[in-house]
Amino acid sequence: MVEESIVQELIKHVRDVLNERREMNDEQLLEYIETIVFRRTAEHDLTAKKMQWLVQRIYHSFRGLDVLQPLIEDKSITEIMINGHDDIFLERHGEIVQSSVKFESSEKLEDIIQMIVGKVNRTVNASTPIVDARLEDGSRVNIVLPPIALKGPTMTIRKFPEKPLTMDDLIGFGAIQSDIAELLEKLVISSYNIFISGGTGSGKTTFLNVLSNYIPKDERIITIEDSAELQITSVDNLVSLETRNANTEGKGEITIKDLIKTSLRMRPDRIVVGEVRGEEALDMLQAMNTGHDGSLSTGHSNTIFDMISRLETMVLTGAELPIPVIRQQISSAIDIMIHLSRLRDHSRKVVAISEVIGMENGEVQLNPLYEFVEEGEGEDGKIIGSLKPTGNILQNQLKLNMAGITF
User: Fold this and answer.
1) Which helix (H) or strand (E) is 40 found in, with range?
2) In sequence order, which residues have a C-beta less than 8 Å from that of residue 153 and are 6 or more positions away?
3) What's the predicted TM-score (pTM) here?
4) H or E segment at 280?
5) Cβ distance 133 to 66 under 8 Å?
6) Which of 43, 90, 141, 281 would bridge with 314, disulfide CB 3.0–4.6 Å?
7) What's the sign of the alpha-carbon dihedral 298, 302, 303, 308?
8) Which residues contact 124 (CB under 8 A, 6 or more apart)?
């Protein structure tokens, strides 16, 4: 690694040159940086590899994401957690480690943040200190600024896979067994409404994307997300909608609730909502109840039972409805609930699949179909176990029958 003092000296030199020659394009800038690096570092006896690193480091400080750029390009890194300009953690293969990489200052980190949000027409400042955005490759970005973030600008980047994962990939990772994956494929094709629950980092969006690619090619799909992440490649007739934050005057906000309402006028066969967090849950349930079978969505919870309770609470934030009415909406809208979990060995697995079978004594009734059974640990600490059938059978097979599919 090259001494940081050399890096900063050269960055300052290039910045001074750019202030004088603002018309310099990317190619000219890279060529100029290569020239000055070769000229200025001859006395430091740098290897060709270190010189190449230095050229890229300086170039990225002006045209890329500064010290983040190599981390973004490193395919082994799945998450980047920036707690402050000099406090960065990385997730690799499920393990979180502190990085030696640092921004030169809090101001530089804030400049990079403004560059990221500007490219997706979002605003983040002291009056609107929290924002969700995305990188050009689709990676999810969450930003929190002072005074909310006490240690300075904070940013969390969930890396977007270069190639969308498939169900075969998930089977290979041990997240689900092939026979259960085949069942879920049949349920998606047959237009069962499916809700995916799980904790943070459990893989809900990935699993939603995998299931979405089972949707028949001839259907019209509307996807609705806070920050567009889904990569549905199996459907041609696809519209992707994304929320928008309010402007500096507090106007122009477009919420998930707004997008669900407008999507109903777009003649969708199915609606895919990336995640429900609040009052939009009622609109999603009503959409599922009004002819948009086969819709999919996700939400945060610890168990399937918790997810039902959370959906009730979400609906109540936007509508004063009796609890029995809300539970009736849930029981008639959702057919299948799938719960994902990130286990203590950092693996992500499907740990429960249940059928929603209606109401009884004022409660939503579940028919558990599969539950994860742990069988021990391997020598490497990896959990050994799999989804096991509960012995219950799928009670509502009408949609399967109408699609001509046998259970």
Assistant:
1) helix 26-40
2) 82, 84, 85, 106, 109, 110, 113, 143, 144, 145, 146
3) 0.80
4) helix 280-289
5) no
6) 281
7) negative
8) 113, 114, 117, 130, 131, 143, 145
Q: What is the pLDDT of residue 104?
A: 81
Can you give the pLDDT at residue 380?
Answer: 84
The set of residues, in sequence order, having a beta carbon less than 8 Å from that of 249 and lying 6+ positions away, is: none
Rg (CA), the chain: 25
Mean pLDDT by 10 residues, the chain (407 residues): 65 65 69 73 68 73 77 89 95 88 88 88 86 86 93 91 87 95 97 96 92 94 89 91 80 89 93 93 90 93 96 92 94 97 92 96 96 90 93 95 87
The DSSP line for 133-168 is EE-TT--EEEEE-TTTSTTS-EEEEEPPPSS---HH
- Closest CA relative to residue 339, chosen from 296, 370, 379, 361: 370
Supply the pLDDT for residue 137: 81
Q: Which residues pair with 372 in a beta bridge?
A: 387
- The per-residue pLDDT for 43 is 64
Contacts of 212 (CB under 8 A, 6+ apart): 188, 221, 223, 230, 232, 234, 272, 296
Q: How confident is the model at residue 229, as a pLDDT?
A: 83
Q: What pLDDT shows up at residue 245?
A: 78
Q: Which residues pair with 134 in a beta bridge?
A: 140
pLDDT at 268: 94
Quote the CA–CA distance of 186 and 165 in Å, as a whole number.
Answer: 19
Query: Residue 110 is which amino acid?
Result: E
Pairing relationship of beta strands 296-300 and 270-273 according to DSSP bridges: parallel
Contact 396, 191 (CB under 8 A): no
Beta-carbon contacts of 52 under 8 Å, excluding residues fewer than 6 positions away, are none
